[in-house]
Amino acid sequence: MRYHFKIRKEGKGFWAQCIELVGCVTEADSMGELQKNMQEALNLYIEEPEDSKELLPLPDDSIRLTKNIVEVALDPQVAFAFMVRHNRLKQGLTQHQAAKKMGFDKIYSYQRLEKAKGCNPSLKIISKIAKVFPEFSVDYVVNLRC
Predict the structure, then answer these.
(1) CATH number, residue 68
(2) Of the residues 53, 73, 93, which one is the last residue of a structural domain?
(3) Which of 84, 18, 77, 25 is nearest to 50 (CA)?
């Protein structure tokens, strides 16, 4: 998953704002530092609170890269958890309902899928996710490009 940042020079430093995510901004003294800060800001912004019901936008693939517009990849673990949550919210399901649809005995097993840290799903779990959320794409999550 790759979001887009618009980079601006200001004085001796730089700042960048994510085009798709209002309020996701960062700054730095150098371009190298800015690149690291953009990824960190993006990951922190996407790792919203567990109880959030806000459906954040997905990256806009129609945005064209330029000298001042760059792509920033979301950490795959953050992207995976975000896409599970995004698909659940898009279907209007609670975590309890999603857990039940996936056949989990305990809601905790499902909740771990929506947490970036500590989530390492097996192929069996990924298969369950794909059945409940047909739009979920592992390729999209891990930034594979054809």
Answers:
(1) 3.30.160.250
(2) 73
(3) 84
- Residue 130 sits in a domain whose CATH number is 1.10.260.40
Residue 117, phi then psi, degrees to nearest 5: -90, 130
Q: Which two tokens stand for residue 32?
A: 């190298």
pTM to 2 decimal places = 0.89
| DSSP-assigned letter for residue 99 | H
Question: Last residue of a domain, which of 58, 73, 88?
Answer: 73
- CB count within 10 Å of CB 9 equals 10
Q: How far is CA 124 from CA 81, 101, 146, in A?
A: 16, 14, 25
* Chain segment 111-146, per-residue pLDDT in tens: 989 988 767 888 999 999 999 999 998 888 876 443
State whether residue 5 is helix, strand or coil.
strand
User: Based on the structure, what is the number of domains in the chain?
Assistant: 2
**Which range marks the domain in which residue 114 is found?**
76-141
pLDDT digits (tens, 9 = 90+) for 21-69: 999 999 999 999 999 999 999 999 998 666 677 889 999 999 999 999 9
